[in-house]
Each structure stands twice: as structure tokens, then as C-alpha cells.
Amino acid sequence: MRLLVLGGTIFVGHAVAAEAVRRGHEVVCAARGESGAVPDGATLVTVDRDAEDGLAPLAGESFDAVVDVAPLSHPWVDRALRAFADRVRHWTFVSTINVYSDNATPGQTPATGPLVPPLTRHATREEMAAAGDDGVLLYGGIKMASENLVREVMGVDRAFIVRPGLITGSWDRSDRFGYWPGRFAQGGRVLVPDAPKQPIQYIDVRDFAEWIVDAGEKNLAGDFDGVGPHRPLATVLEEIAAAVGVDVEFVKASPTQLTEAKVNPWGGPRSLPLWLPPEYDGMKSHDTAPSIAAGMPVRPLADAVADALARERELGLDRERKAGLSLDEEREILATL
After folding, report:
1. pLDDT score recorded for residue 248
2. Among 171, 188, 247, 265, which is most buried by a count of CB atoms within 10 Å?
């Protein structure tokens, strides 16, 4: 298979390219090449997707499959489809769980979940971050419009639309999952949310990449959620700690205590990653039966933890993080409990 990855230098795109190379496919990565290197065995073609003719270096090329991870740009997706749709048999678009407008109802699937309004525009990560809660709607709306365009141009029988939520892996730049293996590895008293009923879902980037390459090989089409089975967050944290293997003492704080201590949910500075208020329980409890039936692999949690911890140690356990609490912040809060 000749595969074009629109991206390929970081996280999901890199993992997809690496998995395809491992299987012996010819892989071309189209990117600026500024965020990182493509996997060994893949070919980088330098493009600028912001430019109307930015894909010109690939003019005349044909591929068996395309994987597009465009995060915040309907125009990027439009240009790519106009350039390659008539010269490719299968198209994967990596969307997001944020296309769903209902964050509260458990058990949603692509067939049942209501969707956000599409936005046919381009945005930057900085713009999304500055928009606060509206940034999620911006992100989801652009992805929704991009999904619609892929289906319209490719047809539903040639389009694989996959909507991931929390993606774990050694190159995750959000620090959300990695915070916990990194923190448990330091031992001692650890602040954890007292939210026994909160569900959580994730997918390891390696599983995600395998499924995407499978889809290109097998012409898998349709809309799917890219998340594993949901489980209680409390159980997942206990299992992460057990996999790390360092003695820790869980100190539980209620949502009210955390809010009073100005601890943020989910991610970002001064946060307890993966903790969410109850009104978001539906976002992390989608029904994954359709995805598993379509071949989505799910590796053991301990494997995901080992991968994340290795990266945490490489980066430094005591570094300044994008998500989580510093040890000083944690001690300050623990002293009040």
C-alpha cells in the first residue's frame, strides 16, 4: 500500500506512519517538517497547508490511502481533498469526540450522539486556548465541518471517520495521562479526586495507529469513536499506581474541596488531570461496542503506563508540566485537607 500521511512528524501522525512502515508499506509524510522528524523508512515531502498551492510538491502523485490529522482547519481538508480525492481509494480523517454536543448522557455512539454545528473556517491553537470553553466548540465545529466534507467528496464507502478522546502515549504533549505515572513514580502522599463514579476512556496511540492502518488496508469505512471501554477513574488511578510499583498514599479530595483549592479539572495548569465534573460523565462513557466490532485494538493499561512512564522519566519527573500540579502546589493543598 502507498500511504500519504498529511502530517507524520508528531504524535498520532507519526505513530500512523511508523506503524505503516513497520508493515512494509510505502509511506509519504507531507508536513512542514518543523515539529519533528518522520519515522525511519518514511519519506518527508515539505508542504505548507496554509498556502492555496501548498500541496503542489505532491502534484500528480497517487496513493492507495490518505490519513489526514488536520486539527483546526476546514480549508486544509478542502485543499487536500481537491488535490487527491480522485487519485486515492480510501481516506481516513482523524476527528474528535468534541464533535458531540451532549457531554452528559452515557452510552452515546456515532449513530445516536447529537453533534455540534459545523464551522467551515481555520483557527489556531492559540485562538482555541484563548476562547476558553468556547474553544472546545470551535475545535469540534471545525472538525465537524471537515468530517462532512470528507464524506461528501469521498462517499461514505471510502471514508473512515474516527473520533478519539483521550489519546495516551509517549509523545502526548498534553501531559494529562502522563501526569499520573510520573507523579506516582515520585511516591509519597498523592492528591487524587474523590469521584468514585466518574468514568474515563482512553486509547493508546499505538492501538489507534494500528486501527487506522488496518482501515486503509481493509477499506474500512464509517464513523467511529476512537476510545476504549469506559471504567471508573478511581480504579484506573489505582491500577496506574500498581503498574508504576512505587509506594504511594492516596489522599482523596472531594470536588468541592478541589474547587475551593482552585484546582482545575481535566488539564492545564494547577489541575488534576482526567478529573471532570459530573456533567461531563457522558463525554467519557461512550459505547465502544461498534468500534471494537470494527477491529479497534485495546491493549492492557499496564502497557500504556509503561510507555508513558518511560517518556516521563526521559523528560524529567520534576519538570514544569502543561497539566497537573507541581509538588509545591500539591503540598499546599494537602496541608489544608
Report:
1. 98
2. 265
CATH architecture, range 1-164: 3-Layer(aba) Sandwich (3.40)
- Spatial neighbors of 279 by CB under 8 A, at least 6 apart, are 103, 104
How far apart CA 261 and CA 190 sit, in angstroms, is 15
Q: Is 48 exposed, middle or buried (0-12, 13-18, 19+ CB in 10 A)?
A: middle
Q: Where are the domains of the chain?
A: 1-164, 170-201+229-283+299-337
C-alpha cell at 202: 482512553
3-state class (DSSP) for residue 142:
helix
On whether the CB atoms of residues 327 and 186 are closer than 8 A, the answer is yes
Secondary structure (H, E, C), 280-322:
HHHHHCCCCHHHHHCCCCCCCHHHHHHHHHHHHHHHCCCCCCC
* E-only strand ranges, 70-209: 90-94, 159-164, 167-168, 188-193, 199-200, 203-204
Check residue 326 and report its DSSP letter.
-
Share of the chain above pLDDT 70, in %: 100
Of 171 and 305, more confident: 305
Residues 6+ apart with CB under 8 A from 79: 49, 52, 54, 55
CA distance 13 to 144: 19
pTM score above 0.90: yes
CB 32 within 8 A of CB 48: yes
Residue 325, all three cell numbers: 500540579
Q: How confident is the model at residue 173 (pLDDT cuts 50, 70, 90)?
A: confident
Give tens-digit pLDDT for 224-283. Answer: 999 999 999 999 999 999 999 999 999 999 999 999 999 999 999 999 999 999 999 999
Burial of 117 (0-12, 13-18, 19+ CB in 10 A): exposed
